[in-house]
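Workshop exercise sheet. Pairs work together: one partner reads the sequence aloud, the other fills in the structure field after running the prediction. Swap roles for the next sheet.
Pair: D.N. / O.F.
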Amino acid sequence: MRIQNFKLLLFLALIAVARPGSGQQSMAPQGAEPQAAAKPVTPKPQDTEVWEPVPKVITPGASNSAPPSDAIILFDGKNLNQWVSAQDKSPAKWTVADGVLTVTKAPGVGNIETRQTFRNYQLHIEWKIPENITGSDQARGNSGLFLASTGPGDAGYELQILDSYNNKTYVNGQAGSIYKQGIPLVNPNRKPGEWQTYDVVWTAPTFGTDGSLKTPAYVTVLFNGVLVQDHFQLKGQTLYIGQPFYKPYEKAPIKLQAHGDRSEPISFRNIWVRELN
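Structure field:
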């Protein structure tokens, strides 16, 4: 009987050892309490609050078209001190009268550009087609705002200026277009004789040390307060003939075009820019 009892006890002990969790319980030190499950962390508003760096304080203009305190004034109606000839960097020879800058289409004058060069920026510019404008298609109040002038003549990236109020032309060449590349989303042109406004955000292309393109240029344009180019990606410089391409540059002037068509010259006023770093 003793042998049978011993075998029975041995059999029960083996079952206890094989039972799940029995080994862990046997290894726990005497008197130890089981660990409680980790409590979930309750989110706080402060977890997603960022306090630095603090944005620089600037004073906005008295109106949306007036320059803010950190703007560089390119034309305030007084003189052309901020502009030079795009051809030879001599003083700009367009006409300033009654607070307005008017294109000079005389032979040998040509385009003008800023003395200062820029990379990424916000630009405000106002322009007006003469009330007595003549011509049609591309020969009617034609000019251009070159967001980056990469050489003389019309080299660079052009935002088209034109009388597109009841004036039919190719749609990637009408006012508000990125010339020969970006068709404007809508046509918000005012009639000739009224001031028009471009508000532009320009993101310049970047290049590698070998001159290869790293990131393309982008532009957003509001035309008379209406979005016409929504972060549009450029394929390269804007060309009258041929396919666009990128040419490496670091910074570039902003250029205004004296187009060679025979229509009456257009005018500009209230030009300012904010550098975006």
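Discussion prompt: Residues 72-275 form a domain with the Jelly Rolls fold (CATH 2.60.120.560). What would you look at next?
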